[in-house]
Amino acid sequence: MSGYFCRGYDFYITKPNKKEEIHCRVCGAKCDVERGVKGPTNVASAIGGLKFEHDFFSCPNYDKEWHYRACKLVEELEDTLSKSVRELIKQDLDELLEENMNTESKSVSE
Ligand SMILES: [Zn+2]
Prior knowledge:
Order of helices and strands: EEHEHH
Radius of gyration: 15 Å
Bound molecules: zinc ion
Shape: elongated
Structural class: alpha+beta
Number of helices: 3
Strand order of the largest sheet: 1-3-2
Strand content: 5-15%
């Protein structure tokens, strides 16, 4: 079950062939892409519907629980005006990404 998409952070909608690739702003992973999507995709309709042809990029990790938390941290990071709060959030974020991105690459190589 998805529902963890954070618009503008872990999925992106562009004009067809406008971007070669996009990296997730939350975790830095290379996004999966669906090119030349016509009409609303599941997610696009969930966010209000898209009628024009587009490329749809989404982070491969978007439906992970940790990714949702990371996404919220990135949002907070960009919202806050406090430099010290930013530092703290960044530490949390780095930790969260390190834990989960490492676990994932480990489970692949073992
Ligand atoms: Zn991501």
